[in-house]
Amino acid sequence: MVHRNRLQAYLDERLTPEAYTDYAPNGLQVEGREEIATVVTGVTASAALLEAARDLGADAVLVHHGYFWKGEDPRVVGMKARRLGLLMGSGMSLLAYHLPLDAHPELGNNAGIAGLLGLTVEARHTAKGVPGLLWSGTPAAPLGPAELGERLEHAFGRPATHVAAGPGPIRRLAWCSGGADALIDQAADLGVDAFISGEISEPTAHVARERGVHYFAAGHHATERSGVQAVGAELSRALGVAHHYVEVDNPA
Fold it and tell me: Which of 58, 115, 201, 247 gets the highest tally of CB atoms within 10 A of its CB?
C-alpha cells in the first residue's frame, strides 16, 4: 500500500509531465482515497473501464486518455457527470498521462511499438513541438509490406489498414502511436520506407502514395495499450501495489 501523494510523485518523476504542453492536464485529475493498494490501468477512462476497476477493488485508475480536454464543454453533465459519479462514488483516484505516455523512451507507447515489432530504435524526433514524439528505426532484416502487415496484426490483434507505395523492401521505418497520421510528411522527410500510426484520414493515403512511403494504420486504441501496461507493471515492482490492466474493446 502506498499513499496517493507518493504514487503521484513517483509517476510525475518518471513521466516528467512538466516537459510537455498538452491538450489536457497530466497527473492526478480526480482525487480519491489516500491509501492505494490496487491500481487499474486502461487506455481511456470510459464508464466501462471505471466499472471494471470498481469491481476489481481499485483505489486508483491510471489511463492515457483522461478528462478535461482543451475546448470541451466544462459543465459536469450527462456522460461526464456519470463518469465522475462512478469515480467519486467508489473513492477511486484518476491519474492520466497523455503525451508523456506516447513519448517516454522506456515506458511509452512508441517504445512499446518498437518492442512488439522487434525494431531497433535509431532516433526520437521532435514533432508538433513535442520532443521525442516521432520515432524511427530498423527491423532486424528488411521486410516486405505484407510481412510487416502480418507483424502488425499479430502485435495489435487486428488487421492494419495499408496504403501501398511500391513493392518494398522496408528497411527503415518511422512510427508514432495514436492519431498521428498527419506526421507522415515529416516521416517521409526522414527517408523511411514506411510509417506506422494508429489512424488514417483522407489526405494520408495521397501523401503516402505521392511521397513513396508505405502507410500502416494499426489502430489508435491498439497502439496505445502498451504505455499504461508498462507503467502499471513498474508501479507494482517499485511501490508494491497490485496492478490489473483492463482491456475495453475499441475498433478505432
Answer: 58
Q: What kind of architecture, by CATH, is found in domain 2-97+224-245?
A: 3-Layer(aba) Sandwich (3.40)
Q: Which amino acid is at 55?
A: D
Give the Å distances, CA to CA, from 190 to 62, 108, 128, 166, 167.
Answer: 34, 22, 15, 18, 19
pLDDT, tens digit (0-9, with 9 covering 90-100), for 115-156: 999 999 999 999 999 999 999 999 999 999 999 999 999 999
Phi, psi angle pair for 99, to nearest 5°: -55, -35
Q: Which residues contact 12 (CB under 8 A, 6 or more apart)?
A: 18, 27
Residue 143 near residue 151 (C-beta atoms within 8 A): yes
Contact 19, 108 (CB under 8 A): no
CATH superfamily of 103-223: NIF3 (NGG1p interacting factor 3)-like (3.40.1390.30)
